[in-house]
């Protein structure tokens, strides 16, 4: 057996220089460039709302558990609630109660406030009328300022005579043509001297490059949506959540995963996991029993299941 008495450390030479950690830290990727362009463009369009929209786009997808009505619904609902999930229907009921309380308070406080506003407007109108009368009649008589304007009959007769006098339209037209029509001789080009200038070569005195480049977001500074197309947004409070639909999700900011669905006694899965955004369109459609819906989505039928569970409607047709 040979024993190793001395150990030598030899450094390996690399073909290319190894990049340092500080160079990799400040290196811009394509994702960073895309985010910068989005901040420049959409920041000028949406203003202060773009920050929240940017955070929502960069966060993970939040999933919602839809309970299967053909399985053990009570057991699955209790299991999801024990894990910390919240029923969406309860959140909607709480928001509806708050809106009803706000509307009652607003109706009670609106009646006295409207009377005060009307009285203030009447006082302002009276003051404005007094100022106008004082400006028209600065030196009022002892009886006071007149309440109405009286017109003399002589002025009326003069105006009626001027209207009844015949006018010679032909003569006025010829006068207008003679007085107003004048050719601008300064803008005329003499063909003997001016045609040669059209064929002369004019070299470029400057070249426009990236220093004169204008970003696309700067064009939206001159775009005003309120002046061009005013839109009236009316909020609808009449929203009916389906009774037979049970959706469970976690609180705001919690994107934790749900447990895997289990098989019930009937042989079907206990719940289905769906993207939270995909559950909104079927709810906003307000499908009534007996309606037929065409589901043209490429998903594996999650929206169709939600529609069928919401209103017990006919099974939607998928493409």
From TrEMBL:
Record's GO cellular component, any one? mitochondrial large ribosomal subunit
Residue spans of biased composition, Polar residues class: 147-161
Q: Where is this region: Disordered?
A: 137-168
Q: What InterPro entries does the database record attribute to this sequence?
A: RCMT, SAM-dependent_MTases_sf
* Top-rank lineage group of the source organism: Eukaryota
Keywords in alphabetical order: Methyltransferase, rRNA processing, Transferase
> Does the UniProt entry include the keyword Methyltransferase?
yes
GO terms for MF: RNA methyltransferase activity
Biological process terms in GO annotation:
rRNA methylation
Protein name in UniProt? 5-methylcytosine rRNA methyltransferase NSUN4 isoform X2
UniProt organism field: Drosophila lebanonensis
Q: Which gene encodes it?
A: LOC115630489
